[in-house]
Backbone:
DNA sequence: TTTTTAAATGCAACAATGTTGCAATAATAG
DNA sequence: CTATTATTGCAACATTGTTGCATTTAAAAA
């Protein structure tokens, strides 16, 4: 059951030429098993015996290599989600948006039917960041 | 020239039942004169002889009363902009988006022609936050 | 204008979050 | 299995923001 995520994590790390260390495997497995974006506070709880610094360095490594991304960041917590294959070592490529349910606090990556497009005359838009807050299906 | 912003600031403060203290007037005047959203670092520079704590408390007061809003927040800096009249003591009501030019670092509030709408089945969207990064007209 | 009083300020101390240098340790290539 | 190199843990530091409290200031009352 956890083995599945564990093996998956190892594969991802090898693909991106990152050493498959215990902490990295644990972080990826955790987020993978969590299904929705996982708040840092929960990751920390689960890895309570891992040094704070190591966790930060691990998250930074995974962010840089395009394995995870910041899905939401409020004053309270920062949520991390696994990247899809479209993200590479050199660039994140996200065309989705992030939704936070204000009831259950869950944060998810959502892919709306109509792609969000914004343009203003005279400006060149390189990247767009869209996040929404509301009530999720289960809480409604 | 600065008098104008100064008087404007006093008016805004009175409207929202905030005491017209020196720091508050200065902060509002500064942002008002800055035209685009002003980074905290610059506000701090301009108010170097004001206590750090006072500045934080001032910004919080202005945020709570709907006089200013956070326009952009990167790891580097947080940008503050004046609110329009639609924001009140009790709720911010922003239907605009925030643009940051990655060349000149300027952050502006923009009102695209087509209003951005996002919906996913099963979710109730209360608020939408859209920010864009790119190149502004002057830098293009 | 002067007095009163309630709120804002400055200071010191604290808290939370993240970063850096370096010696000890663990992962992987040979 | 051994050698090599990256990762880890620890201590120390940095940055950002918050809290309690005595002093000062703004604005209302006299
Ligand atoms: Mn996402
Ligand atoms: Mn704005
Ligand atoms: Zn929910
Ligand atoms: Zn520009």
Residues:
């Amino acid at each position: 059951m956890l083995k599945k995520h564990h093996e998956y994590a190892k594969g991802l790390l090898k693909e991106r030429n990152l050493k498959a260390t215990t902490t990295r495997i644990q972080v990826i497995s955790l987020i993978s098993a969590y299904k929705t974006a996982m708040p840092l506070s929960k990751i920390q709880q689960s890895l309570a015996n891992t040094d704070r610094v190591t966790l930060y360095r691990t998250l930074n490594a995974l962010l840089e290599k395009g394995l995870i991304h910041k899905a939401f960041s409020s004053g309270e917590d920062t949520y991390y989600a696994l990247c899809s294959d479209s993200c590479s070592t050199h660039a994140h490529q996200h065309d989705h948006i992030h939704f936070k349910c204000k009831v259950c606090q869950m944060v998810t990556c959502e892919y709306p039917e109509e792609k969000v497009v914004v343009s203003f005359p005279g400006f060149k838009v390189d990247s767009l960041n869209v996040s929404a807050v509301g009530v999720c299906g289960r809480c409604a």
